[in-house]
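User: Please write out a complete single-protein record containing the residue sequence and its fold in C-alpha cell form, without commentary.

AI:
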Amino acid sequence: MSGDNRTVQVCLEPAVLQLTLNRPECGNAMNLAMVAELRQALKSVRDDRRCRAIVIRGRGDHFCTGGDIKEMALAGGRAANGDGEAAYEQLNRAYGQLLVELNQAPQFTLVLTHGGVLGGGLGLVCASDLTIAQKNSQLGMPETRLGIPPAQIAPFVVDRIGLTRARSLALLARRVDACAALALGLVQQVADDDADLTRQSNQILAELARCAPEATAQTKALLLNAGHLSRPQLLDLGARQFASAVCGNEGQEGTRAFTQKRRPGWADETMEVR
C-alpha cells in the first residue's frame, strides 16, 4: 500500500516494510500526522513474523530536519485559549511514544539517512537497530538554539552514545557529519551515495535473511532488557526464551538444517530495498 498524499509512503513487501518520510517540501519535518502514520505502520506489522525488517528513509533533499516549527507555532497560538501547553505536550509526547515503539519493534529496524538528520530525525536514528548514513548527512540536536530541550530524544541519544558524548552534542547544539557520527556511534555504516546506500542495505538484509524471525525478536527483547533487569532476572528470562525456542518450530528446523547440512527454511526468502 502507498499514497503520495500521505506524510509517509508505505510499501509492504512480503518480508520488508519500507517507510518513506514524504514531506520533502519542508525537509520531512515531523508533524502529528506523520507521527501517527509511522505509529500505525509499525503497529500493522508488530505481530507479523513474515515481516522481517522495517526500513525508514526520507524523500527529497533531507532525511528529517526535526519537528514541524509551523505546527508548533499553531499550537502555541492556542495558548490564548488556555490549551497551548497541552497542545505542545501532546505533540511532543506522541513523538516520544513513536520512538518507544520503534525501539521495541520485534523486527530488525534499518534507518537510511541523507542530508539533514536533526532533532526528531536523530531520534529515529537512535531508536533503530542499525543506521547507514550517506556521506552528505548532517546529524545534530539543534533544540537548545531554539530555546527548547530535546525532551523525547535525549534518553535515546544517551542509550546510543553514552552520557558524556550526549552532553556535548545536546548542550552545544552541535552538528556532525556522517564520518564523525560513525566515530561517535550514532550510525553504524557510511555510504558514498544512493547506489552505495542501496548496496549496503541489501547486504544487511541478506545477512538478516539467514536469521530466524522469532529468534531475532526474542534476542532484541533480551538485549533491550539488559539495562533494566537485574542479572539473575535477565538470565532467568534468557533461559525461558532458550527452552521455548529449542522446543519450538524455529529451533527444531534450525537443528534439522544443521544436521542435514542445508539452509533453514527461513533463509530462502529474498529481502531487498527497492
Q: What stands out?
A: The longest helix spans residues 84-103.
